[in-house]
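> call design_seq(struct)
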């Protein structure tokens, strides 16, 4: 990165201009000019974070930015500088352990990135040097080099395609590693390119690097002796991206335009914004409380120390005379150092090791999602994917689900159903009269066919207006379509060809035309061939393709027939086509489109236009000029598109079915039963989306729909702003003011007596709500809109742009109560809302993998969301919530006896525990049981969680990390701490505890307290465990055994490296006393008695009590599940 910045700083003017000039082959153009090689970055890819030189300082700086780590560093420095009662080892060793483990983990991950970078950078490539291919490492490619790539190789940098081995000057690539799309994409060479690249003299002028994979603007100047330079436009169809793979093409040559960290692939791998879970926020709040407790303890003990010393004879007793240095110390300095000493003595109340345990729990726990066999989809042979493990517990807190429709709720597997030509409906499965049959009759009252000329024109439009490529299939892949998903059913022998398309609905339309008797044969050298009903081959010269984009919502082609007629065929959404055709033609088609949309079909309208010689000349000139522009090329092209796509004639419309995903309705019903509100955000038409919502049971027949769309805003004959005001207040009165108060925990189906409302809004209406006119109250509209949405059972937002989807999610996320949001989608248009939500889920669908790459979690099918939230999310939240509360609990139990001990030693900062116990308590004695618990615990079986979605409500709104449960754990810790200390103090009221009449000392006192402490907090966890595995048994009983063995060895051997050995034979003597044994056992039982009584006497509470009680008759269901790799 430093090298790249220095190159930009000293080596070029890239930052001062909007374009760059590239010399093809790094040769001067023309040859008479002085050639000064421009400075660009090299082709090295650097995805690593550290180097061998900056790893230590950079990693330490990042780790000490954490408050807990920085706090313990300060404590350690205080122990080193100030004379404190405990050794610096007690805080330094745990801190060193935490820092070391984290550094090793991050260093290993970065080493893997270095390794991957090295494999890419050292990959051998072939570069043309003096007309001959020369092999060199990929990292040595320079901008301007001509690179040779053969079939199935990956492009080493971003290239402009100069030459292809195919006769039609095209090549096919797959971009699966970039956007996940497995379909073959067609790219074209620069027009009129010379075959001899050695003599090529050319420059490329293009835009500076930017991350948009689908955007590229440039032009190429080709110099020939005694001729003016020829200019060729360059676009994304000429650009081969690094990471894409060459397919079905033997060899290509391309010139490098972007290299290294300036390639589009590298620019797209920038880090996403860090998402923080609600558990992290609770941890920080609890830490502040315990920090206040720590400071309070230190202040109390410091104050009591000086109150004690103010009494006669206590400040300087005869047996402890002050030194001259102590007598000369300023009182306030001495008080401050004493305060710091008490802070050090009590600092273990802050659980530094909790951060490491939480990180390990999240990291290891994420593998259970990946390993879950229920998430494996045999169709794509993939399972679930975890891109971030920081949000596992957030899966159990979701309140709002925002879902895309196409490809998420539906399969995005298009099937041609019917079409309408000139108002007459035709089905795809009739066999009468050239495959055409009028089934329902025309929209008008008479019964007749639309006319052969119109029918042929419609089918020609379907065969010509697309970007589909034909691939002759081999014997093993007959009828296979190269689209993002499984191949459809095999075609008849005459149709044994595969289709290469970027969109499945384009293949469906071409196949629909094939069923009607018109077959698309392919594109060869700008000539499109189709076979008509008479088996005659018709040829059309492809002049221009006006590409589809989500703003225009249509695409067009301009072709020329053999007879010389120039035709424009256009297909697109009804809202985009109807305003551009004759009004009298619209009414014949509109009813068919609306009925098809109501039945849940995706509809497209088809239109055409005959272009005169002058019209085509103007359009051709405009398109060529716009494509040569470097600035605002898209806007200029859009203007030409809009100009030529006017005054068209409407031919008909198509209806394509996109079936529901497997178990989509059951999944939506389960999510609503769990208390989540489901919103559908889609770019589809309202009628189609509404039908899908009914099919998914988000809307019921009894649901009253509140509609805020352009249609309702324009129905009153008034200004839109006035209608918006009236409708919002009317809907607010119905859904909010007059609605009965909702009862928490009541399932939707149980409260059917209350009116249910569904809210429908479209993109235009949402724009008025979000960005109203200056004279309206923006915040008031938003507030009303949000309240209406929140009081409806389901919300449908149709005709949404990607940015509007993100706006909706952001509005809900920032509303009162900060509800946890989840977005799920499968396409590039869903990325914005996936990144905006607290949790982003990508579906491995047929619209590419951009959603998967930008998501936090990825699943193969929508149905898997049910288990991901109701089972994995539920268990993850319970586990980590228990982990957090348990850590604070056991540390308060640990440090409270130390605090109480100060009242009996004159607040002299005398430690109660040995330094080894202080150091090992959190690292060794109590760390592994809670880690195993937080990974393996199943308080409720997975089958029960899936069958009873209402159980999810019990943990909603961070229920287990609120102040109530936190106070319970704190009170329990205080109770047990008091039991530990005063129970042992009562034991010590007996002066003779050993057989020889000797008494125990203060280290024996602390060891007995510590023994009771370790056994109590460990057995407390054992009482909380519901799902026992051999791992739980091993770590719980193993930790207790390790403590006993360690104590024997630590006190039974004279260690030469210790100046003083406080616990020498203390543990042996303690266990030799029957009284000590009795007290230890009694105190452990007494400390755990509240938990035992609560477990026996407490009655189950909550809305799921009766459901679980009914399941008690089936004990097999209550056994922890083995599904999902030991959740």
């Amino acid at each position: 990165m430093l090298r790249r910045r220095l190159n930009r700083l000293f080596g070029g003017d890239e930052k001062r201009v909007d374009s760059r000039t590239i010399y093809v082959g790094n040769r001067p153009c023309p040859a008479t000019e002085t050639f000064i090689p421009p400075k660009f970055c090299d082709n090295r890819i650097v995805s690593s974070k550290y180097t061998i030189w900056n790893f230590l300082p950079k990693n330490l700086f990042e780790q000490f930015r954490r408050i807990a780590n920085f706090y313990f560093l300060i404590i350690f420095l205080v122990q080193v500088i100030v004379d404190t009662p405990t050794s610096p080892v007690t805080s330094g060793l745990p801190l060193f352990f935490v820092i070391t483990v984290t550094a090793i983990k991050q260093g290993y991950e970065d080493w893997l990135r270095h390794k991957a970078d090295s494999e890419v950078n050292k990959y051998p490539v072939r570069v043309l040097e003096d007309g001959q291919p020369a092999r060199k490492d990929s990292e040595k490619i320079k901008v301007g080099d001509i690179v040779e790539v053969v079939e199935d190789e990956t492009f080493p940098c971003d290239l402009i395609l100069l030459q292809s081995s195919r006769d039609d000057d095209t090549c096919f690539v797959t971009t699966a590693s970039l956007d996940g799309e497995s379909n073959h994409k067609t790219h074209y060479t620069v027009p009129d390119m010379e075959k001899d690249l050695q003599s090529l003299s050319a420059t490329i002028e293009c835009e500076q690097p930017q991350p948009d994979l689908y955007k590229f603007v440039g032009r190429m100047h080709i110099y020939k002796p005694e001729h003016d330079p020829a200019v060729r436009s360059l676009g994304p169809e000429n650009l081969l991206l690094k990471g894409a793979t060459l397919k079905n093409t033997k060899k290509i040559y391309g010139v490098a335009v972007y290299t290294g960290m300036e390639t589009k692939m590298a620019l797209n791998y920038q880090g996403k914004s860090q998402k923080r879970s609600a558990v992290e926020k609770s941890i920080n709040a609890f830490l502040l409380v315990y920090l206040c407790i720590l400071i309070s303890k230190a202040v109390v003990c410091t104050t009591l120390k000086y109150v004690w010393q103010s009494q006669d004879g206590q400040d300087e007793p005869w047996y402890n005379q002050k030194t001259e240095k102590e007598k000369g110390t300023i009182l306030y300095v001495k008080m401050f150092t004493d305060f710091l000493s008490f802070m050090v003595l009590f600092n273990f109340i802050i659980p530094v090791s909790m951060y490491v345990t939480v990180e390990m729990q999240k990291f290891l726990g994420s593998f259970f999602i990946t390993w879950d066999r229920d998430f494996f989809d045999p169709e794509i042979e993939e399972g679930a994917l975890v891109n971030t493990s920081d949000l596992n517990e957030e899966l159990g807190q979701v309140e709002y689900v925002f879902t895309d429709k196409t490809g998420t709720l539906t399969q995005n597997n298009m099937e041609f159903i019917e079409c309408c030509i000139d108002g007459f409906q035709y089905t795809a499965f009739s066999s009468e009269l050239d495959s055409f049959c009028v089934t329902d009759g025309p929209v008008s009252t008479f019964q007749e066919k639309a006319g052969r000329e119109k029918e042929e024109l419609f089918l020609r439009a379907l065969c010509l207006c697309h970007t589909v490529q034909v691939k002759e299939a081999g014997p093993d892949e007959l009828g296979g379509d190269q689209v993002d998903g499984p191949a459809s059913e095999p075609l008849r022998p005459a149709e044994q060809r595969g289709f290469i398309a970027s969109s499945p609905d384009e293949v469906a339309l071409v196949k629909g035309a094939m069923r009607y008797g018109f077959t698309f044969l392919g594109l060869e050298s700008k000539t499109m061939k189709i076979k008509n009903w008479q088996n005659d081959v018709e040829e059309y010269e492809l002049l221009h393709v006006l590409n589809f984009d989500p703003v225009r919502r249509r695409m067009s082609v301009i072709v020329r027939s053999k007879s010389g007629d120039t035709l424009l065929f256009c297909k697109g959404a009804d809202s985009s086509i109807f305003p551009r055709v004759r009004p009298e033609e619209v009414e014949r088609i509109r009813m068919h489109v609306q009925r098809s949309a109501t039945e849940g079909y995706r509809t497209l309208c088809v239109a055409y236009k005959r272009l005169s010689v002058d019209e085509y000349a103007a359009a051709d000139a405009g398109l060529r000029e716009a494509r040569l522009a470097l600035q605002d090329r898209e806007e200029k092209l859009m203007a030409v598109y809009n100009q030529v796509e006017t005054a068209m004639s409407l031919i008909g419309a198509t209806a394509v079915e996109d079936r529901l995903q497997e178990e989509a309705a059951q999944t939506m019903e389960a999510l609503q039963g769990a208390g989540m509100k489901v919103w559908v955000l889609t770019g589809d038409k309202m009628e189609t989306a509404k039908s899908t919502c009914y099919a998914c049971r988000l809307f019921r027949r009894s649901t009253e729909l509140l509609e805020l769309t352009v249609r309702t805003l324009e129905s009153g004959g008034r200004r839109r702003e006035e209608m918006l005001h009236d409708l919002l207040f009317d809907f607010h009165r119905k859904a909010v003011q007059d609605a009965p108060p909702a009862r928490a925990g009541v399932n939707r189906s149980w409260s059917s007596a209350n009116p249910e409302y569904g809210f429908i809004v479209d993109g235009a209406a949402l724009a008025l709500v979000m960005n109203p006119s200056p004279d309206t109250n923006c915040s008031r509209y938003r507030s009303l809109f949000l309240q209406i949405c929140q009081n409806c059972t389901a919300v449908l937002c149709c005709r949404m742009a990607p940015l509007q989807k993100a706006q909706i999610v952001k509005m809900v996320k920032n509303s009162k109560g900060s509800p946890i949001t989840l977005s799920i989608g499968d396409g590039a248009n869903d990325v914005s809302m996936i990144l905006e939500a607290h949790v982003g889920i990508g579906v491995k669908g047929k619209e590419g993998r951009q959603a998967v790459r930008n998501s936090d979690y990825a699943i193969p099918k929508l149905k898997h969301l049910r288990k991901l939230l109701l089972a994995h999310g539920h268990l993850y939240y319970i586990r980590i919530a228990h982990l957090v509360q348990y850590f604070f609990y056991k540390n308060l139990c640990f440090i409270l006896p130390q605090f109480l001990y100060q009242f009996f030693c004159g607040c002299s900062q005398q430690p109660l525990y040995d330094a080894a116990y202080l150091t090992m308590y959190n690292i060794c004695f109590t760390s592994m049981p809670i880690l195993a618990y937080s990974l393996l615990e199943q308080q409720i079986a997975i089958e029960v969680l899936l069958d009873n979605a209402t159980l999810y409500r019990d943990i909603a709104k961070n229920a287990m990390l609120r102040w109530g449960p936190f106070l319970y754990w704190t009170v329990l810790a205080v109770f047990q701490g008091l039991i530990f200390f005063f129970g042992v103090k009562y034991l010590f009221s007996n002066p003779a505890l050993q057989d020889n009449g000797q008494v125990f000392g203060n280290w024996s006192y602390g060891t007995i307290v510590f023994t009771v402490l370790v056994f109590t907090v460990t057995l407390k966890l054992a009482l909380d465990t519901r799902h026992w595995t051999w791992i739980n048994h091993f770590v719980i009983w193993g930790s207790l055994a390790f403590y006993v063995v360690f104590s024997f060895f630590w006190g039974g051997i004279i260690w030469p490296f210790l100046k003083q050995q406080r616990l020498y034979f203390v543990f042996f003597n303690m266990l030799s006393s029957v009284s000590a044994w009795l007290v230890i056992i009694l105190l452990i039982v007494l400390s755990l008695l509240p938990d035992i009584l609560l477990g026996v006497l407490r009655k189950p509470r909550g809305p799921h009590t009766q459901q679980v009680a009914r399941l008690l008759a089936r004990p097999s269901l209550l056994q922890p599940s083995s599904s999902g790799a030991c959740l």
